[in-house]
Amino acid sequence: MAQTLSPVRPVRTIASRTQAAATSLVTLPTVVAHRGASGHRPEHTLDAFRTAIRMGADEIELDLVITSDRVLLVRHENELSRSTDVAHHPRFARRCATRSVDGVPAAGWFTEDFTLAEVKQLTACERRPRLRPGNTAYDGLEGVPTLDEVLAMVAAESIRRGRPVGVMLELKHPSHFAARGLDMVAPLLATLRRHRLDGPHSPVTLMAFETAVLQELASRSGLATVQLLGRAHERPWDLACVGDPRTYADLATPAGLEWIDQYADGIGAHKDLVLPPGGCPASGSEEGAASHVVRDAHRLGLTVHVWTLRAENLFLPAPHRIGDDPSAIGDLAGEVRAFLDAGVDGIITDHPDLAVAARAAHVADGERQQAG
Ligand code: G3P
Ligand code: CA
Fold first, then answer.
1. What distance in Å separates the CA atoms of residue 332 and residue 323, rounded to the nearest whole number?
2. Which of 15, 130, 217, 349 could covalently link to 355 via disulfide, CB atoms 3.0 to 4.6 Å apart?
3. What are 59-80's pLDDT values in tens digits?
């Protein structure tokens, strides 16, 4: 029987935060480990998730795709060659294909062409070997986990460490899979039910960039839902398919957020939507100034997570880079501080260790200022 996770937080963080402030208790913004501690281990492996929990992450984030026999796998995209050794298996050589995924041409090996038993013959490897060469030491040590396996591991780790660990689940390519007769919603809800994670105090949050699938999940489950918002000019694939012209920038406006508030509990915004690089000339704000997204979302009671904070210079805005080497570690703590100052409710990061430390330092600074 599946072990039960205890809740990591209530559905609407903002409401609880207001209540907490009234009683002088502080609700901290959460640190969410993106694909596990993917700055330290190959992403989406059990080791990456365990490492994140050991480092103090409040929640783990993971992506879901599906096999031809309808098993949910923990992978970032349905093409397998960037994060597994599939290309080195002669028996699968003829399975290599090209197709359009969410309107983008892709080539490789696709999960919808593989059964679970076939996927289980593969091993996981580092997606960014040149940027994160240390992580390649773990290549080949683990297979591709199913959602079932990750949930069982998180339940065991929560018990072992005596604290609840949240799980933010993102459905990838739901329209693409549905067009091939592979519905993701039913297996997802069945898996959560089996693990007794479908109740009102479940620590699971459901997320998607597509909007229709999130609306379906919101109506068919009582779980917290987060609408992901990509780069400003991009569009949710399901809206693009029906000719809806709205971009993520449109969904981040007050009107867009009101629409999201009809079905979701929060947003998961690309970090540039909250702290636009170079400021926001349209509103006259300068470099480092926050957009109105957090304020507008909070007015509606929507929580705000930002993604993805990564420690390497390559991913950091200019003021937080240290030196010229793109793979060198920069000032992630400074970036975390900027988002905490902007009032976000959660930081989704490849480096949960650094984010947890930065959050603690930020809290200590605040306490010192209050005392002084
Ligand atoms: O959780 C949001 C974030 O993970 C979305 O981006 O591409 O890493 O899934 P991606
Ligand atoms: Ca994701």
1. 13
2. 349
3. 999 999 999 999 999 999 999 9
* Domain boundaries, given as residue ranges, for the chain: 30-78+145-371
Best of 32, 61, 172 for a ligand 1 pocket test (most atoms within 8 Å of beta carbon): 61
pLDDT digits (tens, 9 = 90+) for 146-183: 999 999 999 999 999 999 999 999 999 999 999 999 99
pLDDT band at 104; cut points 50, 70, 90: very high
349: pLDDT strictly greater than 50: yes
pTM for this predicted structure? 0.93
What does the alpha-carbon distance between residue 363 and residue 4 come to, in Å, rounded to a whole number?
Answer: 31
pLDDT at 250 over 70: yes
Look-up of token digits 């929060």: 266
Q: Whose CA is nearest to atom 3 of ligand 1?
A: 307
CA 291 to chain centroid, in Å, comes to 21
- Ligand 1 center to 308 CA (angstroms): 7
Neighbours of 228 (CB within 10 A): 24
Question: For ligand 1, is residue 61 a contact (CB within 6 Å)?
Answer: yes
Mutation choice for ligand 1 from 348, 350, 351, CB with most ligand atoms inside 8 A: 348
The alpha carbon of 365 and the centre of ligand 2 are apart by a number of angstroms equal to: 31
H-state helical runs in the chain: 13-22, 46-54, 116-119, 147-161, 174-178, 185-194, 212-220, 237-241, 248-251, 254-261, 271-274, 293-299, 332-341, 352-371
Taking the CA of 349 as reference, the closest ligand is 1
- 30-78+145-371: CATH topology: TIM Barrel (3.20.20)
Question: Using 50, 70 and 90 to split pLDDT, how confident is the model at 16?
Answer: very low
Q: Is the CB of 34 under 6 A from ligand 1?
A: yes
Supply the pLDDT for residue 175.
98
Amino acid at 322: I
Q: Is 43 in the pocket of ligand 1 (CB under 6 A)?
A: no
CB 107 within 8 A of CB 98: yes
